[in-house]
Design goal:
- The protein is of the alpha/beta class.
- It folds into two domains: 43 residues, no CATH class; 205 residues, Rossmann fold (3-Layer(aba) Sandwich), CATH 3.40.50.
- 34% of the residues lie in helices and 16% in strands.
- The protein is built from nine helices and nine strands.
- Strands 3, 4, 5, 8 and 9 form a five-stranded parallel beta sheet that branches. A two-stranded antiparallel ribbon has the order 1-2.
- Strand 8, helix 9 and strand 9 form a beta-alpha-beta unit.
- Helix 5 packs across helix 7.
Length: 250
């Protein structure tokens, strides 16, 4: 298929999904993975680095240069055991996620998914063969959007880890407004009792790796973890493509 792909690239030169620049030099293929961002835009994907909170994964952008549990997790430990993300939710990556999530650019999962999968392989927390669970959408939202962006990402993670994926046993049973634009208290209230485990046997005694696109306050992951733990789940870890920095940790 490589000669055919080269011919297609010649007739229809690939462009960066973010800035529109031609990818003549930057276009790369790795197996079935096509990178649809130019080097300049990829360089603007800012990684989450230490120091950070080892529980919720929020980065500290100032202060002591060592990992430490943040004030929020000290005050109230989340139901999930730990959460992490490879990138900060800003700049080029934020624009890529907006295109992916809100402008029906589902093809971007072909580039974003492997990035998350690569991070998952290097993250030791979940251990061996967890159950991969994408954060579910309500059926109404799924019809509106046409796809669950978390499921598209989770498939890449599951394949890279050789793990089972389950997208039916945990369901979103209450239609909620988007978390974007809501304050912290409103976000927590918005997702309260929004999820339900419909097949507890899938999770009993197991470790679950929850996959989502973005963690802002972490309330969505926390509520999912709460109902998973109540169903008999042993451990719950949260994995997101991006993490918003908490202003209090600046």
């Amino acid at each position: 298929m490589r000669p055919l792909n080269q011919l297609i690239d010649l007739l229809y030169p690939p462009r960066c999904a973010l800035c529109g620049e031609f990818l003549w030099q930057d276009h790369r293929e790795d197996g079935n993975r096509s990178v649809c961002f130019c080097e300049a835009c990829l360089a603007d994907f800012r990684k989450v680095l230490s120091p950070l909170c080892p529980v919720c994964g929020v980065p500290f952008l100032s202060g002591l240069a060592q990992d430490r549990v943040c004030e929020e997790c000290l005050r109230k430990r989340p139901f999930y055991d730990a959460a992490a993300a490879p990138f900060l939710y800003e700049g080029s990556l934020m624009r890529a996620i907006h295109l992916f999530k809100y402008e029906a650019k589902s093809s971007l999962a072909g580039s974003l998914g492997p990035m998350l999968a690569e991070f998952a392989q290097a993250w030791p927390k979940p251990g061996h063969c967890p159950v991969i669970v994408p954060v579910p959408l309500h059926s109404k939202r799924l019809r509106e959007r046409g796809f669950n962006q978390s499921l598209l990402l989770a498939r890449h993670v599951a394949e890279s880890l050789g793990a089972q994926i389950d997208f039916l046993a945990l369901r979103r049973v209450r239609y909620t407004t988007p978390q974007t634009g809501l304050g912290k208290k409103e976000r927590k209230k918005n997702v309260r009792k929004a999820f339900q485990v419909v097949e507890p046997s899938v999770f009993k005694g197991r470790t679950v790796l929850l996959v989502d696109d973005v963690a802002t306050t972490g309330n969505t992951l926390d509520e999912c973890a709460r109902v998973l733990k109540r169903s008999g789940c042993k451990k719950v870890y949260g994995l997101t493509l991006a993490r918003a920095a908490d202003p209090r940790c600046l």
